[in-house]
Specification:
By secondary structure, the chain is an all-alpha fold. It has 5 helices and no strands.
Length: about 110
């Protein structure tokens, strides 16, 4: 069954690509990343998370563009671990060469327990 188009060519199901949602949909990820960065700055992520691990601050579009997946994954895991700890739950900081599946499994398990 083919999904029925809604207003202005939008699809009613959530499985459509950016072209079906309108011309601005391709830039939505950039807006989300800028919002994320603003929220991280409010939580002082540069002082509390990055300096502890000797990492550089994120650019406005760090996670919006796939530049270095390994580095981006490790940054994501570092921030996830820091945010879980900031929420009052003890969480071990993942290491760069840990098994990615195990790290994500631990993060998701901790988030489910919230």
């Amino acid at each position: 069954e083919e999904p029925a188009p809604g207003r202005r060519g939008e699809w009613e199901r959530g499985d459509e690509g950016p072209a079906e949602r309108g011309p601005g949909a391709a830039f939505h990820m950039f807006v989300l990343m800028e919002d994320l960065l603003d929220k991280l700055k409010l939580l002082s992520y540069e002082e509390e998370a990055l300096r502890r691990h000797n990492m550089r601050p994120l650019s406005r579009h760090y996670f919006a563009l796939p530049t270095n997946p390994g580095e981006q994954f490790f940054m994501f895991c570092t921030l996830a671990a820091w945010l879980i700890s900031k929420a009052g739950r003890p969480f071990e900081q993942p290491q760069e060469y840990d098994d990615p599946n195990a790290v994500i499994s631990n993060v998701l398990s901790e988030l489910r327990s919230f």
